[in-house]
Design brief:
The protein has 220 residues and is an alpha+beta fold. It has helices spanning 16-30, 33-40, 44-48, 75-93, 109-122, 126-138, 140-143, 149-159, 165-171, 175-190, 211-219; strands at residues 55-57, 64-70, 98-104, 198-201, 204-206.
């Protein structure tokens, strides 16, 4: 049975001010997420368990697992990907000490559309999905404020040979892929995670700003 569709806020015309304010509010909400988890009796093992639909970077044998919940229109999520992840990847992931788990958690109808589109375009190829995710986060300021964001993404897909017109059309609102995204979002809410970005390191709540410090403490 297909999960009930989440009622997200309908997308309004975005502005830098709107998206920035939203990101600040979501970050504030995320700061209490860990305590909500405790109140719901959810174990850290449930949160940290890697599922088949998770997108991962790094080896499964890494002693430290970092789970990151994100949304494509989240400004702080894009900043984490652009500014924090490269250093974490070079120091921790590529050296075999950390495995990073990406989980998309839509915050709006537009996020849901893009998460569905992106997972469908990437298919079962993790590297392909990550390439697309990297492109969208690096160009977020261009497409997220466009009058027709999906038209801009279609241009990206064709310009970079990521997907042709037919494939792009098939993937928009793809029911099977959307169900996967909705199920993952429902699990996140069951864990008490509703805001993005939300980071967990071996079950401990972390902020993007102190992630490297926390990883260093755990690696001692």
């Amino acid at each position: 049975m297909r999960p009930a569709r989440v009622r997200y806020h309908r997308r309004v015309k975005l502005s830098r001010r709107t998206l920035g304010a939203a990101a600040l509010g979501l970050t504030a909400l995320a700061s209490v997420a860990f305590f909500v988890l405790g109140g719901r009796g959810v174990s850290t093992a449930e949160i940290m368990a890697v599922r088949p639909d998770d997108v991962t970077i790094g080896g499964a044998a890494a002693p430290i697992t970092v789970v990151v919940y994100y949304a494509f229109t989240c400004a702080d999520c894009a900043e984490f990907h652009r500014a924090t992840l490269p250093g974490v990847r070079a120091r921790w992931i590529d050296t075999g000490r950390v495995r990073l788990v990406y989980r998309d958690l839509p915050q709006s109808d537009l996020d849901l559309e893009i998460s569905t589109l992106s997972r469908c375009l990437g298919g079962l190829q993790k590297d392909r999905y990550l390439t697309w995710l990297n492109l969208l986060f690096h160009r977020q300021s261009q497409w997220a404020f466009a009058r027709e964001p999906l038209a801009v993404l279609q241009a990206y897909a064709t310009e970079t040979d990521f997907a042709g017109f037919d494939r792009f059309q098939v993937c928009q609102g793809n029911p099977a892929t959307e169900s996967v995204v909705l199920e993952a979002a429902e699990r996140a809410r069951g864990f008490g995670v509703r805001a993005v970005p939300a980071l967990f390191v071996n079950g401990r709540r972390a902020g993007a700003g102190n992630l490297d410090q926390l990883l260093a403490e755990l690696a001692r």
